[in-house]
Automatic annotation (TrEMBL):
SUPFAM superfamilies: ACT-like, Carbamate kinase-like. Residues 2-275 form the Aspartate/glutamate/uridylate kinase domain. This is Aspartokinase. Pathway: Amino-acid biosynthesis; L-methionine biosynthesis via de novo pathway; L-homoserine from L-aspartate: step 1/3; Amino-acid biosynthesis; L-lysine biosynthesis via DAP pathway; (S)-tetrahydrodipicolinate from L-aspartate: step 1/4; Amino-acid biosynthesis; L-threonine biosynthesis; L-threonine from L-aspartate: step 1/5. It comes from Pedobacter metabolipauper.
């Protein structure tokens, strides 16, 4: 069985939703994971924000506006009266539920339920559409098998235990549809997967049933060797290892969330990134295999702040770094890059909510310098110890650009460089011309 995930743009209009059958083959065993219709989740976030602020009138207006959009969506997707009526009933049910929330106490628990409505709508409407054209399918409620534990981590064994019986109940059916993003938490409440959304769902479903492969269908033909929005002439990468893909995703490749492929990686299930608009394009295959001896891609991550702590107390001291890192842990602030010397340590962060408190505590160890408006440029490829000269080529490519920090050797897959954000475009272009041309 294959898992096919389609994002919001792939189901963003009735026309695009209908075209999914150009890709989906009802004769093959498949589970189709759908995101919410593009724009819906943003609208639901806005509605929730109004309700949390108790601005019920504004929330009601937003709900009504979104309801009207879905009325038009149903009319275009389901022209036959019988099925249009079924679709309208579904839409009216969900929006009656949303409207009812404007009369009650609204908490973050209800907010999670509101955010789930987009995926519940898209999957049910697509199921009705397939029925209207005579294509058999089964709607699998993700809330029946997708669960996160007390640490908000997905429970794959739980998914296996609860999903497989649902599939076994419909052995004569080959096409299944389920929701991305949504799940239940350890208390049984409606929740979401946070990181990676529907991609994460597809990877988790693939892991739960040991699928043949997971396909992530988006609006770009695979992961490119540079940012196509900035650099001309980028090309899709045919093959990446899971580790290489995770590095690229973490450091700026927007096509994939860095953690969304981890379940597939753990169970060695290939992940294929494909383009809904160009189904024939080869895309990118992410697996345990990778081409060796090559530089694969360049990515950049903005919004970085560098913090340098300098103290003579570091010299020959043990336990110093642990005390420094405990401050970041206490404020739940992840660190991207780390470099050290005998008397100083520099780190980078992109979560700044607690920056002032962190800096205040760091002053107890010595002087603290802050650099804002920084970007991390990450070059991913085969940087194993036996590969000579690759690091030199990277650094030589941007010798005319000031570098604030360098991280090399932390893994065999990347070199990370911290530069001023104003130099990012020049760095990406210069690296591309030197490494790929």
């Amino acid at each position: 069985m294959k898992i096919l995930k389609f994002g919001g743009t792939s189901v963003g209009s009735p026309e695009r939703m209908k075209k999914l059958l150009d890709i989906i083959n009802p004769a093959e065993e498949q589970i189709v994971v759908l995101s919410a219709v593009s724009g819906t989740t943003n609208s639901l976030v806005e509605i929730s924000a109004k309700l949390l602020k108790e601005d019920k009138q504004a929330a009601q207006e937003l709900i009504e506006a979104l309801h009207l959009k879905y009325n038009d969506f149903v009319a275009e997707l389901l022209p036959e009266a019988e099925f249009r009526e079924q679709g309208q009933e579904v839409v009216d049910y969900h929006f009656k539920f949303l409207a009812g929330l404007t009369n009650d106490l609204f908490t973050p628990i209800e907010e999670k339920v509101v955010l789930a409505q987009g995926e519940l709508l898209s999957t049910t409407l697509y199921h009705i559409y397939l029925k209207s054209i005579g294509v058999p399918s089964v709607l699998l409620p993700a809330l029946d098998f997708m669960k996160i534990d007390e640490d908000n981590e997905p429970d794959v064994p739980y998914a296996t235990t609860h999903l497989q019986p649902l599939l076994d109940q419909h052995k004569d059916n080959k096409l299944f549809i389920t929701q991305g993003f949504i799940c239940r938490n350890s208390f049984g409440e409606v929740d979401n997967l946070r990181r990676g959304g529907s991609d994460y769902t597809a990877s988790l479903v693939g892991a739960a049933i040991l699928a043949e492969e997971v396909q992530i269908w988006t609006d770009i033909d695979g992961m490119h060797n540079n940012d196509p929005r900035i650099v001309k002439g980028t090309k899709p990468i045919a093959q990446l290892s899971f580790d290489e893909a995770a590095e690229l995703a973490y450091f700026g490749a927007k096509i994939l969330h860095p953690q969304s492929v981890f379940p597939a990686q753990k169970y060695k299930i290939p992940v294929r990134l494909l383009n809904t608009m160009e189904p024939q394009a080869a895309g990118t295959v992410i697996s345990t295999e990778s081409e060796k001896g090559k530089i694969k891609s360049i990515a950049a991550k903005d919004g970085i702040t560098a913090i340098k702590i300098q103290s003579s107390r570091m010299l020959l001291a043990y336990g110093f770094l642990r005390k420094v890192f405990e401050i970041f842990e206490r404020y739940k602030t992840p660190i991207d890059m780390i470099t050290t010397s005998e008397v100083a340590v520099s780190v980078t962060i992109d979560y700044l909510d607690n920056l002032d408190k962190i800096v205040e505590e760091l002053h107890a160890f010595g002087s603290v310098d802050i650099d804002t408006n920084q970007s991390i440029v990450c070059v991913v490829g085969d940087f194993s110890a036996e590969k000579h000269g690759y690091a030199a080529r990277v650094l030589d490519s941007i010798k005319h650009i000031p570098i604030r920090m360098i991280s090399y050797g932390g893994s065999s897959y990347n070199i990370s460089l911290l530069i001023n954000t104003e130099d990012k475009t020049e760095a990406l272009k210069s690296l591309h011309n030197r490494l790929f041309e």
